[in-house]
Every structure is written in structure tokens, then in C-alpha cells.
Specification:
Blueprint (H helix, E strand, L loop, with lengths): L7 H13 L2 H8 L3 H15 L4 E4 L2 E4 L1 H28 L2 E7 L1 H8 L3 H7 L3 E7 L13 E6 L7 E6 L2 E5 L2 H6 L14 E2 L5 H9 L17 H9 L4 E5 H9 L11 E2 L3 E6 L7 H16 L1
Parallel strand pairs: 3-4, 3-5, 8-9
Antiparallel strand pairs: 1-2, 5-11, 6-11, 7-9, 7-10
Length: about 300
């Protein structure tokens, strides 16, 4: 029958002391006293029946047997750590953090999350809503969706969503314009702007509605979320991204009283560091986002 192994605590004490060649520094690493480490090493030597250290007045030196044993234990502890990390990784979800604006999260991402969770139950997709640029490393962000022209130095940038802008209002507001409404019918209405006033100017010029003052109405920054909320509440007519309004239009919470849309030179881009897709879970999220964008 095989002899029993030495205690794990004595093996850990010896491995640390052999690495540092110091009982004191080994004790600091293991959060015990130097006397406890020395005692555990001596018990190990007694168990093995040989000396592992040559003890000098102010230093330790490994014996030949001690050197071989320390190298083997170091490899064994490394394997134990790797096995433990693997087991822990299976026990916790694979977290992927996506940074995006509130409007994108509420109107584009959240209505689609159920399909992602069904397809990728092992991935915990989390998102932080902010309009500022993030530091991918220090902020722990894997992917970001940003609204702009797509120029982000040092990062990979892929166009995700490019919408036309569409006029929306509550069904009651839209009905108030009547069945024969045209852009000129907005002359007495509140115009809601989601970032600046220029989009309304372009839309009204395309409709030849030059008598409507495009400078009127509140500007709701930084994205379409507040503009859509105001329109849904019956507080005016908002010019917003078509995909953001799609769910509300389908469920009759909003109406689109005009057919005319206006193209925007800005788009939503998926942005990430060059090595982000090395993680399989991050690549899965990126591929899913692109597939959803292609379907919309």
C-alpha cells in the first residue's frame, strides 16, 4: 500500500520557502508566522527522512533533493491552479460588457435581447449606457456602439445601423393633422429635436415646407430616447431614427403621419480593440449584433 502523502500545508510551506529562500518571506506570502513555516518544513523533512535545506546563520540553501522536490512541487501547484481556474470558469457566466447610448439600448438593443439570450445562454451580456468614449481596458468594456462618422483611431469600426430619419407623433397628435396633412400642417405644432435643429431643417426643405419654422421646439440630448418619449406622450412631433421608432410604430404607440424620410450622414458603429475577438464570447456578441443589423 502506498505511504500517505505529507500534509498540503507542509508542502505549501516548503514550496514558498524554497522559492524565496527565506522562511520570513514565505510566511508573509502565506499569512502565517515564520516559526510556523519553519515547523512545517521540519515536519516535512522528518516525514521524508531527509534534509531539504542547508541552514546557514543568515541564509537558506536547498539541498540537491530539495531542488528537485521544489521544482516538482512548483509544477504540481501550477497544474492545481490551472485546474481550479478552469472549474471556476465553468461555474460562473462569461460576461461581455457592451457600451452604448441610452437610446440605442432602449429602442434597438433591448427589444432584441430575448433572441440573443435564447441563442447564447452561457453568455452574460451586460451593457452600460453612456455617450462618452470609453477606455476599453480600464472600463472593462469589450464592445461599444457609437453614433458618428466611424473614425476611431486605433480601433476597429464596423457600420452597424444607418437610418433614415422619420417624423413620429402619438396617434392622437397625428390624427389631429387630418387625413390630408402635409408638412405645412406642422406650422402650429411643437417640433422635438433629438440632438440639433438641422435635421428638421433638411426634412422641411425636402418637403418644400419653407413656412414652417424649423428652429422652434426643444432639443433633447444626447440621443433619441427623450425625443421618442416626448412624442409618445403627445407633446409634439419628433424627427428620429426609423429603427428606433420601429417597435413603437408596430405596436401603435407612435404614428408616422408622413412618408418622407431624410437620410442622415451619421450612423451607429460597432467599435472594439483589435484583439477583442480573441475571446469567443465577444465574437459571438459581435456576430449576433451584425446579423440583427442586417435583418433590420
Amino acid at each position: 500500500m502506498a505511504e500517505p502523502l505529507p500534509s498540503l500545508s507542509s508542502l505549501r510551506a516548503f514550496e514558498a520557502a524554497a522559492r524565496h529562500l527565506s522562511m520570513t518571506r514565505a510566511a508573509e506570502e502565506l499569512h502565517v508566522t515564520a516559526g510556523a513555516v519553519s515547523l512545517q518544513v521540519r515536519e516535512l523533512e522528518a516525514n521524508l527522512g531527509l534534509a531539504l535545506f542547508e541552514r546557514h546563520p543568515r541564509r537558506l540553501e536547498l539541498t540537491a533533493a530539495g531542488q528537485d522536490y521544489a521544482a516538482t512541487l512548483r509544477s504540481a501547484f501550477r497544474l492545481i491552479r490551472q485546474a481550479t481556474d478552469t472549474v471556476r470558469a465553468h461555474a460562473r457566466p462569461d460576461i461581455v460588457t457592451l457600451s452604448c447610448t441610452t437610446g440605442f439600448a432602449v429602442h434597438w438593443l433591448m427589444p432584441r435581447l430575448e433572441t440573443f439570450q435564447a441563442a447564447h445562454p452561457a453568455i452574460d451580456l451586460r451593457f452600460g449606457t453612456t455617450a462618452r468614449l470609453v477606455d476599453f481596458r480600464s472600463d472593462g468594456v469589450a464592445l461599444a456602439v457609437r453614433h458618428g462618422l466611424g473614425a476611431y483611431p486605433g480601433l476597429i469600426s464596423e457600420k452597424l445601423v444607418q437610418d433614415d430619419l422619420i417624423v413620429v407623433a402619438s396617434p392622437a397628435c397625428a390624427a389631429r393633422l387630418g387625413p390630408n396633412a402635409n408638412a405645412g400642417s406642422l406650422a402650429g405644432e411643437t417640433l422635438i429635436h433629438d440632438a440639433g435643429r438641422n435635421d428638421w431643417r433638411l426634412w422641411l426643405e425636402a418637403e418644400n415646407a419653407l413656412d414652417v419654422d424649423w428652429r422652434r421646439g426643444p432639443v433633447i440630448a444626447p440621443d433619441s430616447n427623450g425625443a421618442i418619449e416626448m412624442a409618445r406622450a403627445g407633446l409634439g412631433f419628433a424627427l428620429v431614427r426609423e429603427s428606433f421608432a420601429a417597435n413603437d410604430l408596430a405596436e401603435k404607440r407612435l404614428a408616422a403621419p408622413f412618408r418622407r424620410t431624410v437620410a442622415s450622414r451619421f450612423a451607429y458603429y460597432l467599435v472594439y480593440p483589435p484583439d477583442a475577438l480573441d475571446r469567443a464570447s465577444v465574437k459571438s456578441v459581435r456576430d449576433w449584433l451584425r446579423a440583427e443589423a442586417d435583418r433590420s
